[in-house]
């Protein structure tokens, strides 16, 4: 789809990751200087010039699995370590948060404002480090340069590309459920009230014109929503009022972030469809990962600074339990092909109508590429 | 049939109690349960009248193997009244799903189609699937980031494959096909290039039967990727416009079909894409990314009606040509039905709002009437693994 989507995807997911890590570091009472070091190290790795260069090259989006590998490496760019279960949970939260933001963006172009909100907050984390601040500002300039001139149509394509990336992801996040922005079935609430996007009129008016373009009649109709005009447009400058709240930090020390792994069985059918298609991307993804991570300059821990483990759950037992009970279809390690009940039923029905072809594609389960991918998962 | 329902009642101050139906999931909900609950339509603030008489009711949904992708015009419907069947086509992503259903929405058979792999390693994504009704046959057309595939109407036999000219182009210049319509014995398909200024319309000449399909013309006129194409029978007159093409910049081109297609008028955009367009008795209906529907006189290109119809981008328009009903669906979760007409005195285009329906928490991506009198329609939504159907009471 759009080949300019990756930078937006990466920076926003990265922003969410930092919000969550910041919250957990404080909740776990990690000493201030250690916490700051972790955030500084991660941010400086994220905004490294070489890395950004690779990121901003026009390219297709890769799979969620490939991207997760990059974030895992990023999260380990400092003295902090995460177990698999915590890394899984972190990635789940990141992806659901950004999916929510993309879905609720009033205009496709507003995803740029969401990105700027993330960058603004990131700059708040590294106020004392002028060099890293400069890197972030440089990224700001690059974003403005590349996206500032894009048309509404191109932003619509970017939005569609992002939504395809997040398709069928319905992990329930307790904070979203509590705030009533997510339903119990994992779908987000789409409000039918509030301000319309900048550039859109409040629905409900029909205007009719004659051949000279003069208005000759005006009718109102009941449109069903409860909308008001947009107050003002958010700023796309380096500094400014973004107006949009999406992409700002919604976590605080007192709001534990939990995800519910159950309740996703309804989506088994859609997930299976995704995995049945062959993955010729594996090799291409490896190249992408190699290029991207090659640009990452991970600082080696200097001196006797001891590392520590961050837990995304409230207790170690919870973390262990989560690792054991994670539903298979949400595993980032293995993609399974399952013959579901749906398929059996379809075969039956199709026999009534005639011929039916089962599209069975061989899975690259034993290719070298997958072994390498598995190895990278352990980095 | 056992149905689990989750219903939350919102009592919001001065508004009438609004019952919000949570997603009741796939595999059918009888309309008895639904009556009075479906299509939550919150009243406007301060409105003390009873809600408008409900014209449509939510019918049994048809489950999909895969959820619908967040594309525009992501539902195609082929009515086969003689066989008491309706075909539905929905794009999931790298695959498209075709299914046939009996009158009450009972699903009968399903089939999945994939985009043909070409050069390159990225999985090809399908952009649109659409049935084209021609004088002597019906073909199913599938457009993707690789090319254009044409099948017999039940999707079993591929009769034609046209690879888009991507060649050694870098990802930035790669082309994709999108926008499908039948015009007489032609099938027109739009094309666009990512990142560069290009939008062509490919015209294929279709024989009465067999696979000897020929690309007969390439129409220039657009400079951004095509989004949608609409056609109507020429009605026997000579100089009448019978095709409209729309693009990402909002530009509309009005054509007359023939052995050679002629560009008659251009209607400029205004900074937002036009994802969907329809044509009926010389009236062009265009849906835009800012939620507006515009009605233009095809002969002159003049704007005669401007509707502030939706609060988000419009994703699909459809027509019931027998009665002049227009269906608009938006990413704001709403579907609206409009009646098009001409003023008896001036002959100017007029419109009347007939009905609005809210498909809760669903960013719609496709909508079609299911019969030519416009008494039933179906919608698809992003992340929704079913086709929601509505019919008038």
Automatic annotation (TrEMBL), chain A:
One Pfam family this sequence matches: Oscp1
Highest taxon of the lineage: Eukaryota
GO cellular component, one term: cytoplasm
GO terms for biological process, alphabetical: xenobiotic detoxification by transmembrane export across the plasma membrane
Gene Ontology MF term list: transmembrane transporter activity
InterPro entries with a match to the protein in the record: OSCP1
PANTHER family membership: OXIDORED-NITRO DOMAIN-CONTAINING PROTEIN (PTHR21439), PROTEIN OSCP1 (PTHR21439:SF0)
Record's protein name: Organic solute carrier partner 1
Gene name of this polypeptide: OSCP1
